Amino acid sequence: MIIGIRQKLLLGFSGLLVLVLVMGALTIRQIDSLGGAIDIILRQNYRSVIACQKMKESLEQIDRGVLLTFTGHYDEGLSSIRLHEKNFRNALQIELGNITLPGEHQKAMRIRALFIEYSRVIDLVTDQSQDLSLRQKRYFQTLLPLFQEIKQFSGEVLEMNQANMNRANDSARRMAASAHNTMLAVILACAVIALLFSFQAHRWILMPIKKLITSAEEISRGNLDLVLDTTSNDEIGQLSRSFNDMAATLRKMRKTDMDTLLRTRSATQEVFKALPVPIAVLDQNGEIEVSTESAENYFGLKPGVNVHDLGHEWMTELLQNKEKQEYGGDTLGNKRYIQHFAGNRESFFLPQAVPVPAGTALILRDVTQIIEQLELKRSVIATVSHQLRTPLTSLRMSIYLLLEERIGTLNSKQAELLLAAREESERLSHILDDLLDLNRIESGKAHLNIQPASPFRLATEGVDPFTAEARDKRVNLVNTVPEGVSEVMADPERIRHVFANLLSNALRFTPPDGSITVSACEDEDNVRFSVANSGEGIASEHLEHLFEQFYRVPGQRDESGIGLGLSIVKEIVEAHGGTVGAESNPGTGSIFYFTLPVFSPSRA
């Protein structure tokens, strides 16, 4: 018959269970015996001891009260006598109801009879109608002997119960000692059986499991060639055989996987090399594991080479700050690109370090075409703007001359058309100015005169030109910027342009009797300027596009512009090292804000 681990465990635990049951039965028996002894002490004798002590104490107080009646304190003594007579009777009643020892009843009844006589004599001794000397004589001849006799019998009853309590206590101690020895013996037996069971469990279970653990650790280290002993027929033996089968299957799968991996890796490397984008995968130390041909040709990123040895400072900086994506170079939008010359061709790449398991993927996206398109756009805008400015100036001059009627009188219809033409020419002139400003800022040709400036003064100079227009439109324009705000690093002229764009937009979209509030507050190392209006507000889906070039919120009037004002604001503020943004909900107005860095000597 095959004995499995389950049967072995049941056998060991059954022995322990039997011992526990025996120990429990003995414990209950001893506890019951101890409980009986304690019950004798508490229930049978303790109440009698307390009752006898109270009787003796009450008797002493009664005798004291009798003596007080002899010394001129009659009322006090009589009150004490009556009180303690009652206490004595209560204690005597308890004793009579708790008779447990042979001879105790006779003594208790004797105390009762004596106290009845004692009470009668007290009445005679305390009778004020009797002569004091006669009362004193009765006290010493009759009352005092009764007092001593009652006290003697109370003491005897007390000693009887105390003696029985001592006997019960000794019996309880003997029972406790016997229970202690019995429990100790059972505990030692349980310990011996537990040690034997533990020893057998170590042989039956722990040693085979340790072998399995060691084998599993070997497999985790890649050793699939080991074979376990499978001589036993219990569950451990079955597990060992299954373990050997699993190792054989893993060996077969590993060989298949290795063949597949080699084929896949070879194909992946060939495909990876053919990618047109320069890409290199690095390990944690910066050594190149695989790269594309374009990465090798442009930047020397060959497998086996460490990128730190190539001398590209921007590449080292990029890898050190891959979490922040910060590195040197020119900017493209919010990111930075690098310039590279290969042969007679200038190329631009946007580097990116992407964390991958146990390494980094270095990706260099070719943005040459984007850069060239931006340069072409700037060139076209500059050329077109300059070419349009001369004929536009002549056109504006001609309109002004016609409106002044120096070459002839105009009828009302002609004057109306010329006024409209003047407004449109002025609007076109502003558009050209915005295009030129934007082009200069983007190309870096718009130099900033950065200096420490007071936020209060910047806001005041920005608001003052719009005070009259706001009054004419019945709009309450308020400047709440306090004078105590820290100075900022700013070009005052450019910031006036920022305020001009924001305030002109606010006045355009704020209805009569509305309000526009300009405010500023310090936000860590920056000062945040806000222009809030009570207009109709802007839907949330348009907020993220407000600062894009040529973006206009659908439904706006034609005179609201072509969508360059806020993009110019964004370029100017970001050139200062600040940020811009907008907050709005339809029907609750809008808040446009920008930040400027606080002045400090290090920034200066």
From TrEMBL:
SMART domains: HAMP (SM00304), HATPase_c (SM00387), HisKA (SM00388). Keywords: ATP-binding, Cell membrane, Kinase, Membrane, Nucleotide-binding, Phosphoprotein, Transferase, Transmembrane, Transmembrane helix, Two-component regulatory system. SUPFAM superfamilies: ATPase domain of HSP90 chaperone/DNA topoisomerase II/histidine kinase (SSF55874), HAMP domain-like (SSF158472), Homodimeric domain of signal transducing histidine kinase (SSF47384). It is an enzyme of class 2 (transferase). GO terms for biological process: osmosensory signaling via phosphorelay pathway. One of its GO terms (cellular component) is plasma membrane. Its EC number is 2.7.13.3. The chain crosses the membrane at residues 183-201. GO terms for molecular function: ATP binding; phosphorelay response regulator activity; phosphorelay sensor kinase activity; protein kinase activator activity. Residues 383-600 form the Histidine kinase domain. Residues 203-255 form the HAMP domain. It catalyses: ATP + protein L-histidine = ADP + protein N-phospho-L-histidine. It is found in: Cell membrane. This is histidine kinase. It comes from Chlorobium ferrooxidans DSM 13031. The lineage of its organism: Bacteria, Pseudomonadati, Chlorobiota, Chlorobiia, Chlorobiales.
